[in-house]
Amino acid sequence: MALFDVEVARDKSLHRFERAIRAGCDGRKAESAWWVDHVSITNIATIVEWCNGKGIKIQFEKCNNAVFDKDTMTISIASSIRPLRQVFYLLHECGHYMISNTAGKDDRFKMGYRLGEGFTSELSFSHKLACVEEEFEAWHRGWRLSQRLKMNLDRKQFDAVRRSCLKTYLVWVTKYGK
After folding, report:
1. 138: closest CA among 172, 102, 171?
2. Apex CA 176: angle with CA 170 and CA 178, to 5°?
3. Which of 90, 106, 72 is closest to 141 using CA atoms?
4. In angstroms, rounded to a whole number, what is the distance separating the alpha carbons of residues 26 and 29?
5. Which of 61, 89, 92, 132 counts the highest number of beta carbons within 10 A?
6. Residue 116 confidence (pLDDT) above 60
7. Which of 5, 13, 2, 74 is nearest to 44 (CA)?
8. Residue 76: beta bridge partners?
């Protein structure tokens, strides 16, 4: 587990750029990728600061994608993915945090993921559908957070990652639903 360190992240990005150049990659593409990393690292730092203000810890570790654990107030995120995707995943997981904060006021999400007493743990079609509804909402709230934090993100790139992730949930619901 590692905490976010801007300088370490920037060094990793620079090393990726240098490796790409040494490997004979197109210099303009490598430079463009480095710049996207650089801007994304700044955005990650902004999200980390927002999370710190909410009491949310962020851990970069070997895992798939990202997950928010309400009990420990921790977002675990894959350390091996590029910074732009980490930005999108972090925003999404912050969306789950925001949903967990309003769950007591909004019955809409009580049938999905565990949010406290009275939750369902069964894997019925209704439960799975409620989980998917929360996933859509978490992406929506994550995008709105990016706007409040004044991040200049490309909506098409964000939506491409969002669609890719949501597709896995839709397959899960329809393939194994009862």
Report:
1. 102
2. 110
3. 90
4. 5
5. 92
6. no
7. 5
8. 59, 67
